[in-house]
Backbone:
């Protein structure tokens, strides 16, 4: 995305790596904002907006054509969608790996080392589905009396069997590549990349949890005007299509599928394909904006036990 944008706009784009929301907060509080654009998880984008930490998106420059309204905000805009799926070592389980979160929790039928993403979002949803809650009812339960306690109670059951609570997609992929983990909650794009030569990671779309990353401009960014033009380039149908070819995460611009850049066989494997979305649960970012601090603190305590 970035090289074509730089060439088109006649600007130089420097890359850095973000470790998450705290990086943005630290730069702002220090009065030393280094980034003009950063990619963050959707729930973190919503929280940063709530904190007054973001510049507004200039929609006179940034075209939202083809992008769903749910991923457009006054201060951030979606960049890609991804799904955390239940994956397994294909050599060990073949096609008979765990097909649901109830199976993931079933350590007798599906023995082996396990890993989960170190985040309260995705974990609570998985726990309730493991406890028999239909994906369509998960947030009704979480928002109802006793729902959060029910989810944490179920997480406490599986926590002793989690070998690694990983912090990033590259770590998840490495755990599987090194054969350190047998069953994992993993980003679909990472699983697909591991299968580029031969199938090494089996996974199911059933009960996958779908989330999005967004692009934002931190408050006080030194090159705000250029940032808007770069964001516009990154969200174009062609740039989004190139991304979907490079890694099978979902383009937020639906017109990416009309460019002819994404081959039909790749489109069919994309997490955003309608057929693949039928059994997935979309993460509700508003739930975590309302409850994040308390939930994450409780989750961190559980993980550290």
Residues:
């Amino acid at each position: 995305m970035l090289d074509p944008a730089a060439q088109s706009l006649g600007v130089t784009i420097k890359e850095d790596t973000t470790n998450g929301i705290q990086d943005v907060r630290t730069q702002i509080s220090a009065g030393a904002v280094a980034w003009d654009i950063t990619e963050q998880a959707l729930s973190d984008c919503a929280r940063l907006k709530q904190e007054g930490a973001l510049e507004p998106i200039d929609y006179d420059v940034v075209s939202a054509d083809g992008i769903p309204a749910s991923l457009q905000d006054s201060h951030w805009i979606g960049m890609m969608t991804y799904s955390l799926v239940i994956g397994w070592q294909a050599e060990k389980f073949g096609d008979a790996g765990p097909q649901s979160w109830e199976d993931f929790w079933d350590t007798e039928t599906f023995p082996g080392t396990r890993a989960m993403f170190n985040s309260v979002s995705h974990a609570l949803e998985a726990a309730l589905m493991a406890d028999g809650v239909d994906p369509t009812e998960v947030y009704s339960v979480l928002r109802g009396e006793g729902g959060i306690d029910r989810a944490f109670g179920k997480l406490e059951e599986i926590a002793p069997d989690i070998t690694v609570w990983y912090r990033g997609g590259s770590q998840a992929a490495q755990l599987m590549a090194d054969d350190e983990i047998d069953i994992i909650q993993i980003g679909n794009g990472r699983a697909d990349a591991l299968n580029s030569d031969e199938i090494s990671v089996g996974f199911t779309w059933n009960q996958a949890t779908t989330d999005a990353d967004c692009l934002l401009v931190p408050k006080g960014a030194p090159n705000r005007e250029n940032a808007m033009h770069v964001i516009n380039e990154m969200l174009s149908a062609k740039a989004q299509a190139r991304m979907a070819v490079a890694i099978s995460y979902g383009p937020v611009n639906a017109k990416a599928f009309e460019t002819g850049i994404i081959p039909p066989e790749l489109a069919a494997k994309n997490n955003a394909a309608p057929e693949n979305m039928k059994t997935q649960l979309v993460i509700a970012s508003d739930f975590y904006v309302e409850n994040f601090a308390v939930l994450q603190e409780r989750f961190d305590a559980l993980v550290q036990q």
Notes: The two ends are 41 Å apart (CA to CA). Residues 37 and 217 are 5 Å apart (CA to CA). The chain has two domains: 2-80+212-277, 82-211. The longest helix spans residues 285-303.
